[in-house]
Amino acid sequence: MTAALQRLYALGRGNALKAQLVRGALGVGGLKLLSLPLTLVASVLLARGLGPESYGQYSFVMAVLSLLVLPVGPGLGQLVTREVAKFHHGEEWGLFRGLLKRAHQWVILGSILLMVIIAMLAARNASWVVNDHWTLLFLASPLLPLLGLNALRTSILRGLRKIIFAQIPELLVRPSLHLVIVSGLLLTGLLNPATALASQVVVTTLSLALGLWLFFRCRPRQIADAKPVYLNGEWGGALLPFTFLAIVSTFNAQIGILVLGWLGSDTEVGAFRVAQNGAMFVSLSLTIVNMVLGPHITRANRDKDISRLQHLSRQSARAALVAALPVAIPLIFFGEPIINLIFGEDYTDVAVWPLAILAVGQLVNVAFGSVGLFLTMTGYERDTLLGHVTALVATVLAAVTLTPPFGAVGAALAVTIGLVTWNAVLAIRFIQRMGFRPSAL
To answer: How much is the pTM?
Structure first.
């Protein structure tokens, strides 16, 4: 163990590419390792305290919000990360400032519009009780601008290669505060779907405040005196595929919960969410890699350094797969005792097989490497969008077909089918665009 740590320390020294990647991965990985137990304990408390039905209601509303926020959050975020990395590298401070101004305007105005639409629909359809979906969606709608601004702040800092600062509010502050509030609600007997969603509003507000403070500390001083320059047409044209990309990719991730909420029961939604929480640990290594890689891919592509791109692909894919295997195997073969121990007997009968199926799908996802990120960060976001749309069609068809007879198991199969389809399509486009194959295949 000591020798391995010494080797990692040696690899992380200096300014070479490998050293930068090791430092970034270790920093973000450390935050993830701190975040995981906090997030897991909060999820366990929610699942046990609410029970399968109420936890399903809470999970369904959070899934809907994750889709609604896409045009003003993650969809914009990938574009901002790419453009910030490009403008920072080229010292184009006027464009940098203009991008920040337009991005914040888009998030704030778009979020307000979405909140007004939700309020109008809730006024017509809500029954105003704590287990009504429309009531819960209305109560949680303030999350939209908060999540959008959080995603924007994270994307800017990632483009500046301030990876650790970008993730501190999301990976450390938010789960810590959420755990504290959920524990308090549980101990006082006030935990229900409405208060659980309200806790998300509170912790997201506080993490945004910290994130903004970190951003003002890290932003380049040159942009303060620069006159804003706008590329409205170029940014607007690029935003559309990025937004569609975020919509279909998130829809692919949430389709199981959404279809179960439509065709199944709240209990099945809760069990499926438990399975998703477990399966996400398989792709954790790939998530960490993607957090670090984005700006490096953009810079290597701008310098037309193909060998560097190939090196990034090879090293990141192999590292992610090696880390994922020991996580996936227990979840696939020993899911029942794991779920029973952590989440309780109420979830065991429904969640075991979905957990195994989703874990297999995520392992396949990791094996393909960061194909989507490479295409997006090198200007081929339309190829990534094509992969996501193809996968979405496959997922929806499979979900509508398999969910009614098989419930949560059918939804898990549908999500896995879509995940494999997405990676297969993107791997083909990756080889065509990059001239080399994802090395973990």
So the answer is: 0.76
